[in-house]
Predict the structure of ribonuclease H.
Amino acid sequence: MVYIMEFKVDGACRGNGQPGSTAVAAACLFTRNGFHKTKVKHLPPNNPVPTNQRAEIMAIIMALKWALARYSELSAEPYMDVRIKSDSKYAITSLTTYIHKWIDNGWYNASGRPVANTDLFRLAFALENKISYIGKVTYTWIPREENLDADIECKEALDRT
């Protein structure tokens, strides 16, 4: 039996990377009938200062954690097919193309500089590895127009702060 979990995720930041900036991440889990459930998280206001990129990666982490939590609640032990869709080319390309190179290079990029957001990429990679024991994770880039649910959740959360 295969248990499919499809997420659309997004992150947003006002005052991107500046002191006092505010960032949120949203993960929307879609059901077979097209409805979705959403989790939204506000990023800490400092250390490091929030950025849009950090919010985008945090949204992916939220989806991965949600998938693992949901799996632990199931009565059976199905094969997990976790599908994460994001409009962040940075996050998707990092997790599908660059992360293995960064790991091999000791978390330095091709220019010899430390990889930005290493803490979040390490966490996402560790969660993905946990899922690999019970299934697989697929990351897909989608255009922003196809990610409106998660985008709206982020905007509304930012407006409430």
Notes: The chain has a mean pLDDT of 94. The longest strand covers residues 2-14. The helical segments are 52-73, 89-104, 118-132, 148-160. The longest helix spans residues 52-73.
